[in-house]
Fold this sequence. Notes:
Number of domains: 1
Helix content: 10-25%
Number of strands: 2
Strand order of the largest sheet: 1-2
Structural class: mainly beta
Shape: extended
Distance between the termini: 20 Å
Amino acid sequence: MSAWRKLGENVGRYVKKGMKVAVVGAVSLHMYTNDKGETKASLEVNADDVEFLTRVEGNASDEEPQYEPQDEPQNNVPDGFTGVEVDQLPF
Length: 91
């Protein structure tokens, strides 16, 4: 995810690993070949809006925000989604 200006400042200040956020923005797919010759893909979202879904307690001071991290699904695919391989993508 890329976020710029004030949005980027807020994301950088308050979002921590394990927090849930909703991101609205343009998605781009980047294909590349790693050092082992394997084709890899990465998705990037250029954020227009970010909504914090995990409650952040405290104030806007320089203190570390407190939050409740959620357990990740064991298969790394969120409920309601289906995992796909890179070669299955239509683009």
